Amino acid sequence: MKPCSTTRRPDDMKILFSAARIRRRLDRLAEEIAHHVSNRELIIVAILKGSYVFLADLSRSLARQDIHVIVDFLGISSYGSGTTSSGKVRIRHDLSIPLKGKPVLLLDDILDTGLTLRHATDLLRRRGAHNIRTCVLLDKPARRRIPIEADHVGFTVADTFVVGYGLDYNNRYRHLPHIAELRAGSKPAVRTGT
Ligand code: PRP
Question: What is the pTM of this model?
Answer without folding.
Answer: 0.89
